[in-house]
Automatic annotation (TrEMBL):
It comes from Deinococcus aquiradiocola. InterPro entries: Peptide/Ni-bd, SBP_5, SBP_5_CS, SBP_5_dom. GO terms for cellular component: ATP-binding cassette (ABC) transporter complex; periplasmic space. One of its GO terms (biological process) is peptide transport. CDD domains: PBP2_NikA_DppA_OppA_like_7. Belongs to the bacterial solute-binding protein 5 family. The keyword Transferase does not apply. This is Peptide ABC transporter substrate-binding protein. GO terms for molecular function: peptide transmembrane transporter activity. Keywords: Signal.
Amino acid sequence: MKANTPLTRSLLLSTLALALGACSGGGSGNKSTLVYQESADIPTLDPGVTYDTASGQVVENLYETLLDYKGSSLRDLQPKLATSWNVTDGGKTVTFKLREGVKFHTGNPFTCEDAQYSLRRNLITNSSNSGNWFISEALLGTSSNAKDDPSITWAKISAAVRCDDQGQLVLSMPKVDPAILPKLAYIGQAIVDSKHAKEIGDWDGTEATWKDWVGKDLTGGVLDKDPSGTGAYKLVKRDANSLAASAFADYWGDKPTLQNVLIQKVPEDATRQQALLKGDADVVESASRAVIQQQLQGKPGIAIIDDLPNTTSSAIFMNEKISNAALLGSGKLDGKGVPANFFSDVNVRKGFAYAFDVDSYIKDVQLGKGKPRTMLLPDSFPGYDASIPTYALDTAKATAAFKAAFGGQLWQNGFVLNADYRAGSVAAQTAMEILKKNVEALNPKFKVNLTAKQWSTMIQDSQNGKEAMILNAWAPDYADADNFLYTFYSSKGYYQTAANFKNAQIDGWLDQARSIADQGQRDKLYAQVGKAVYDNAYYINLPAAAGIFAYRDSLQGISKDTYNPMRAFILGVYWKDISKK
């Protein structure tokens, strides 16, 4: 019987309910259940459109990729659903031998057909809110889908991803991509159950229908509602406020110790911290360092892991083409709103950049354990240039910039700007409040209104250019500078619709850097990019903090040696590798 039938699902729900009933919330008193509380909702459970950490932390435990990162390494890869691979044709062809004896949650066997279907499906859909652009670049030579690039044909897709006569997966690229293997380790390239997908109404896998799925947004689709992967856990239940998963009895690898995982949406930070202190939750969404050190550290039952590497980049976005009329007020520079192109004036951007107090953010949010970033790139990555200047609070320079903006109109008339931040994120709220306070202090005619917004809604709106100013971040899909710099700075990058700027010179440098293998040459190009971005103040860079997390000390398998920032779960490990004493 398939695991997604009503009867089996009812049995699983009953089992989970019994397990969770052992203690309030199913927290640390229950050794078979992991309870995690977070503020964000979970936008999707379909790997083909998973491109946020809230979704990724679940998807990476329900599904699996061909390859995986080894231990805590960002560069060493190991087999997962593939047991080995061979690179030929001067680096343009990769052949994978696939693992045998693997089952999906439905009971269907894993075969090469599933891998072929999954990657072809990603190349075909390649919607704007997915991470499929970078696998499409590698396999098809373009980041676009067939709607935007008519050169993409079924013949190209089927030749790029195919199964050979030995049941091996063969990937063929138009040119060498040195990052192809790390790209395949990203959870968005996880393998889905093709037979199950077809049965429930997803793409049928044929040439006859592929055009119907080009650019299709898979969020909320059939695999989002009814996932089937090969991962160590299977979905039991999901609603607007919680998700429950249970250990997959037929998992091919080492069996998980934890039988159940419960994720609860709890927007209030204080409520989450109390649940952790009481033992109603085993781990909660990472609070600010101040909360952890002042309210959690040293308390009975609480363990702290600190000084973890920071491989994310965070920034305040300034959208140069705001497409949401509701945020514009009057839509004019008359003191009652802002025009849609408000941030297209470099002086406006510089005014905001000079108004952000980096030192206060480091002190108040990061408790002194923060470091300004010159670029939106982790400083541990090749290509980072520490010599590029940074913006810091300077009221004189902020005032001068604002006075120069729009030929003096902005300073004379003032503005009302509506900005959003992720609901439940103390760090994001604090950053936006620091900026609001300092900007409004410059001129009584300046007004910044802040609103807390649901994560999934904010993502969707930013992708459609509807957010005026937000704080957002990027975690690496694969360990290469291009994954950050192209994403943030290219007019064809993932965040282009959220920032809406185009700089032909920067585009040229980025395109050139991804076409050469010599790291020294790439570093020089990236330094030029970084300096040009600084000169144009396209973003307000947030300082990078050393990672710190609090969790119940009953959890085992968590340490700096096991932490891998490429994994979406905040403790940097898979659920299956955690146990409880």
